[in-house]
Design brief:
- The protein is an all-alpha fold and 187 residues long.
- The chain folds into two domains: 1-73; 76-187.
- It contains seven helices and no strands.
- α2 (17-31) packs antiparallel against α3 and α4 crosses α5.
- The longest helix has 38 residues, at 35-72.
- It is flat.
- The two termini are 43 Å apart.
Length: 187
């Protein structure tokens, strides 16, 4: 199991109401000097985690087997389209991650203590994108060669070119001043 997936499972496990309640109880026992009881609760929590992982793996394996059976019925042309579309999503994840980082890097050149907050909500998407990319890197061969990097960079450069074109056309229009002001305010 990839390290990132294991970490995600751990976070979900620790955030369940049952485990949170046990951790609260464990902390209370520690604060009141009942270390042996606190250790027992901690051990029970840790002992249950592999069972949760096994259940998750069994469920995932059953879903994969079901998916494999269903995918086998799909015509080759549609399988290719599915793979192509999935690759587009992974490439979009790469671009989202890069764009969020680049945006603040540009700002930090002249204002090191500032960052753009307009895209704070996209940071969550960027974090998810990073996890998806890490999964692809750990489980596939696509990101292991230069073709991936070159194609993603080309797509990113093309997006920049399209953005420059949009900006140039808006500047040429009579509404540029009003729209630039709205963009600066984030509205």
């Amino acid at each position: 199991m990839p390290e990132s997936m294991l970490g995600d499972l751990r976070l979900r496990y620790e955030s369940t109401p049952e485990v949170r309640e046990l951790r609260t109880r464990q902390d209370w026992l520690k604060r009141n000097g009942r270390y042996i009881d606190a250790l027992r609760i901690g051990k029970a929590i840790e002992d249950a985690f592999p069972t949760v992982i096994r259940r998750y793996m069994d469920k995932a394996e059953a879903e994969v087997m079901t998916l494999d059976t269903e995918v086998a019925k799909i015509p080759a042309k549609d399988k290719d389209e599915l793979m192509e579309t999935a690759m587009v999503l992974f490439m979009a994840c790469d671009i989202i991650d890069t764009a969020v980082l680049d945006l603040n890097d540009v700002l930090k050149r002249t204002m090191p203590d500032c960052r753009i907050t307009t895209f704070d909500d996209i940071q969550q998407v960027s974090d998810m994108a990073r996890k998806k990319l890490k999964y692809l890197q750990e489980t596939g061969d696509y990101m292991k060669d230069l073709v991936w990097a070159e194609k993603c960079d080309n797509l990113y450069d093309m997006a920049h070119s399209k953005a420059r074109s949009i900006i140039r056309k808006r500047r040429e229009s009579k509404d540029w001043g009003v729209n630039a002001e709205r963009l600066a305010k984030g509205t």
